[in-house]
């Protein structure tokens, strides 16, 4: 684990320490109010209770958002390092039909598609949350093309390879905000752009028909 991520660990320890302090300090003040001052309520104690709880909630919400809910900005090169790989696809056959990618449709209200493709010596399966299939024309004219793909390189690859898979990999850089979220060195995104010459090279079948 990167040393930068200890920033986030320290921040969470501070949140925990503040929670413990709030519990103990609230108990101490309220016992003093009852035993020493012979009162059950004071506005001062109420205000201190509210301030301590609000501070804890603010810190906890901020750390939850930073650690678990922060969406990486892949176009911000100061926060995310991008790398790209391009591999030609291997043509598979099913009887007389040849195809480069197999699409399996899942079930449910928002079904996820599963894409299976082959490269030299390997078979991969990715889903539509992290991949798209482009059939002919401009490979970037599909959903997911809004990602920071190197357009000139993609166009050159599409001229050199009739069918290919382009992989975009993003890794969190060593920065304070990434360390605070304990993300440094971790994957920010893996996205696959699968490009084939036309729809006839796509084999469609339902997920429940898979072997």
From TrEMBL:
Keywords: Membrane, Transmembrane, Transmembrane helix
Superkingdom in the source lineage: Bacteria
Chain ranges passing through the membrane: 6-25, 46-64
InterPro entries: LVIS_2131-like
Protein name as it appears in the record: Uncharacterized protein
Organism: Agrilactobacillus composti DSM 18527 = JCM 14202
């Amino acid at each position: 684990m990167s040393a930068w991520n200890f920033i986030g660990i320290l921040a969470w320890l501070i949140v925990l320490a503040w929670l413990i302090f709030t519990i103990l300090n609230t108990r101490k003040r309220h016992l003093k109010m009852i035993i020493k001052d012979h009162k059950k309520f004071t506005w001062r104690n109420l205000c201190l209770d509210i301030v301590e709880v609000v501070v804890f909630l603010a810190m906890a919400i901020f750390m939850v958002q930073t650690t678990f809910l922060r969406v990486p900005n892949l176009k911000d090169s100061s926060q995310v390092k991008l790398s790209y790989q391009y591999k030609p696809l291997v043509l598979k056959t099913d009887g007389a039909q040849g195809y480069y990618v197999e699409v399996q449709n899942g079930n449910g209200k928002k079904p996820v598609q599963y894409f299976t493709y082959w490269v030299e010596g390997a078979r991969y399966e990715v889903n539509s949350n992290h991949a798209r299939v482009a059939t002919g024309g401009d490979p970037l004219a599909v959903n997911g093309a809004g990602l920071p793909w190197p357009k000139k390189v993609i166009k050159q690859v599409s001229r050199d390879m009739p069918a290919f898979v382009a992989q975009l990999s993003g890794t969190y850089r060593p920065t304070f905000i990434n360390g605070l979220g304990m993300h440094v060195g971790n994957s920010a995104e893996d996205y696959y752009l699968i490009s084939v010459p036309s729809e006839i090279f796509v084999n469609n079948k339902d997920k429940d028909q898979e072997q």
